[in-house]
Write a structure and sequence with these properties.
Rossmann fold; 11 helices; single chain
């Protein structure tokens, strides 16, 4: 029987500081859930598969300073960016293919697979490879975009869905479909994970309400300005996902007013009355575990 995911008060406080700059409130909810799913203990080895720019490794290092941290991505330039964000944090970053991981069998105590499966042509093969490298009894934390995605987050693609038009998958208006082969439904994701040999312990639909057009504001505009180094330093300190510890939360900073507005909308996700009729969500979060005694798959 699985225990309910939870963090200590100190871990919750550390996570709140790390996420202080986060304007994508759906991302905040994903990160918080992943942190709870992992059940990290001192001495554990954590693998962030598809680490991207390295936030989850930064998060894990703050929550479990005595853990060994390993990250993998397919592109060298992404790993260089991750290393710049992680600074002196002791991590091992590897370039590799999720379908052919450069690790021995049964080496990881916990694995993060966040917003990765939807990019892969063969998601089942990737899960089987992760099954190989994770220890028996260890946790796999997954998030993917929801097929019934919220129009609050991506109104353009939601409208196209209603009009039975194909989604936009490339360019600044791609939204939740950006470079994705598919989106998922909860039952489909759970079945896929079970087929790979894991036991599914928890499946959750996350985030109906966001500030309208969050995807376009944060990623199509904000991320583009950030990547092109077009933002002043005082703005960067208040908007970069990787410098939450540098934002003191002063309401004299206009960026913090914007963040407060985004979070005010997000709090509707905590209201039973507001969520009573919610049928669309940004993400699915799933917690799985490799059985202690393997069965043939």
């Amino acid at each position: 029987m699985s225990r309910e995911p939870e963090l200590s008060d100190a871990q919750n406080a550390a996570l709140a500081v790390l996420l202080r700059n986060e304007s994508d409130t759906a991302y905040t909810r994903r990160a918080t859930r992943i942190a709870a799913y992992l059940e990290l203990e001192p001495g554990d080895t954590l693998f962030d598969c598809g680490t991207g720019r390295g936030f989850y490794l930064q998060m894990a290092g703050a929550l479990c300073p005595d853990c060994t941290l390993v990250g993998l991505d397919y592109e060298d330039h992404v790993l260089r960016v991750a290393q710049s964000h992680l600074g002196a944090l002791p991590v091992m970053l590897n370039r590799g293919d999720i379908h052919h991981l450069p690790y021995q069998d049964n080496v990881f105590d916990a694995v993060i697979l966040s917003e990765v499966l939807e990019h892969l042509t063969d998601d089942h093969a990737a899960l089987r490879e992760l099954y190989r490298v994770i220890k028996p009894g260890a946790v796999l934390a997954i998030t993917v975009p929801h097929e019934r995605f919220s129009g609050w987050f991506d109104p353009l693609n939601r409208l196209r869905q209603h009009l039975r038009l194909p989604p936009i998958r490339r360019g600044p208006f791609a939204g939740i479909w950006a470079n994705h082969h598919r989106l998922y439904l909860p039952d489909e994701l759970a079945a896929l994970v079970r087929e790979a040999g894991f036991t599914v312990e928890q499946v959750e639909e996350q985030t109906h309400y966001t500030f309208p057009g969050t995807q376009f504001i944060v990623y199509s505009i904000g991320k583009e300005l950030y990547d092109r180094n077009l933002l002043p330093k005082f703005i960067l300190r208040s908007t970069s996902r990787y410098s939450g510890t540098e934002n003191r939360g002063s309401m004299l900073n206009p960026i913090n007013w914007m963040l407060a507005l985004f979070r005010a909308v997000d709090r509707l996700n905590e209201s039973p009355r507001a969520m009573a009729k919610a049928r669309t969500f940004v993400n699915i979060a799933l917690k799985a575990r490799k059985p202690l005694h393997e069965a043939s798959v």
